[in-house]
Predict the 3D structure of the following.
Amino acid sequence: MKTYSDGSTMFMCGSGVEPCSVCGDIAVSLCDYPVGPRKTCDQPLCEKHSIKQGAEWQDIHFCPTHVIIDKGMINKE
């Protein structure tokens, strides 16, 4: 169950429905940041927290933490 600031609530159920790992809203994509050989982060992300990367034709999205890491603003370790 997700409760919004206006007091409304949302219930998510069923297979394939995942909440955003940042805010709990409905996820629309997974984080594509590489974390190993042939492996990506795969955190579920909503529209707000799914940050598009690369060219317009590429379907690449990073989570907010991996955008900061990718830009070199924090250390990966």
The longest helix spans residues 64-70.
